[in-house]
Amino acid sequence: MPFRASILTLYPEMFPGPLGISLAGEGLRKGLWSLDTHQIREHGIGRHRNVDDNPAGGGAGMVLRCDVLAAAIDAAVPTDDERPRLLMSPRGRPLQQRQVREWADGPGLVIVCGRFEGVDERVIEGRNLIEVSIGDYILSGGEMAALTLLDACVRLIPGVMGKEASGEEESFENGLLEYPHYTRPREWEGRGLPEALLSGDHARIAKWRREQAERITRERRPDLLSPSPAHLGPARDGKA
Ligand code: SAH
């Protein structure tokens, strides 16, 4: 059964968006993965199909109602659906390549996109939503975050990227950032190529790349070399 993404959103027209072009889009048309969207507003309250209300306790902004969101989830996802249910949220566990790979290998994902100030906490608990963040900054809605997460997953699905899909040497796959790349021309604005890459000696090239990857990781992301507890263990329970 191919990877299936079900998106709950107030803006279904944002999908597949950028995932409808290039290799992800070809994969979608070939049926290597699939996408369905569900308009949360269809489960809104009253004639105006209201989905949000004032925060309990006061304060700025609006909050997505738990009853509306739960109804949307229940209508879109059968109870025996085994796919992880995610809520895009800046409070969530930071998305990491290891987790992306695990999800890409699975049956797919249900992704709830928040809007406004966020969603009523009770639906997160009541529907076992796993909160996932794509970084320490605030977006205006969960849709772009969902597209980012899906792009990361979809490119790993067999057949989507062809030869490049192995990705074994890419940044994060071995706990390191990637080594620098070079191509033609052999000389450009006075800059040549690293000598090791011209040697034709595969062992020497591999060693050079490894050293460069270690150097770049040390300089830019020393946290990857001595992971904090947040980086350890499977990222399944959604608790940071
Ligand atoms: N008031 C919230 C931010 C709400 S932003 C707070 O301070 O935490 C509105 C919606 O955008 C969120 O519900 C979430 O779905 C989405 N969103 C914003 N930033 C995000 C991020 N870094 N990662 C994932 N989703 C994000």
From TrEMBL:
EC number: 2.1.1.228
CDD domains xref list: TrmD-like
Coiled-coil intervals, chain numbering: none
Main subcellular localisation: cytoplasm
GO molecular function: tRNA (guanine(37)-N1)-methyltransferase activity
BP GO annotations: tRNA N1-guanine methylation
Residue ranges occupied by any tRNA methyltransferase TRMD/TRM10-type domain in the UniProt entry: 4-225
Broad EC category: transferase
Complex and partners: Homodimer.
Protein name (Swiss-Prot/TrEMBL): tRNA (guanine-N(1)-)-methyltransferase
UniProt source species: Bosea spartocytisi
Lineage start: Bacteria, Pseudomonadati, Pseudomonadota, Alphaproteobacteria, Hyphomicrobiales
